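Project standup — Tuesday

K.O.: blocked on the structure for the chain from last sprint. Re-posting the sequence here as requested.
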Amino acid sequence: MELNYDLIFPVILGKMFVEKQDREEIEVKLNQYGSEPFHIEVNRVKVGILYIHSVKGTSIDEVIRLACGDFRALVVAAESPYTTEFVTSQSKRSKRYIKAKSKQDNEYFGWIKQLSAL
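H.V.: unblocked you, prediction finished:
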């Protein structure tokens, strides 16, 4: 699923943090990611940070540290938590992979759709 994270991120942020002061405090924290030239896909990663914080209950500071250390680990944790073990093309055709992929997509993209009203 191709998403425009530049549009989605501010909508999700606004729905999660309705009060302007709370939202501004979280934005300051979130802006730690994106401050380095090697930080890429900034809004995609920020959506992942919000997802893990919201759904998994992990502190936002801890999730931001993970993202700043290795954004790939954060993206995998948010978008592909059930399918990282399937590395060969043959295993990606298995029923177990298809079921795991469907579950992770429903959870992550369902959360995005719910909060961003896509």
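K.O.: great, moving the ticket to review. Residues 35 and 78 are 21 Å apart (CA to CA). The chain has a mean pLDDT of 91.
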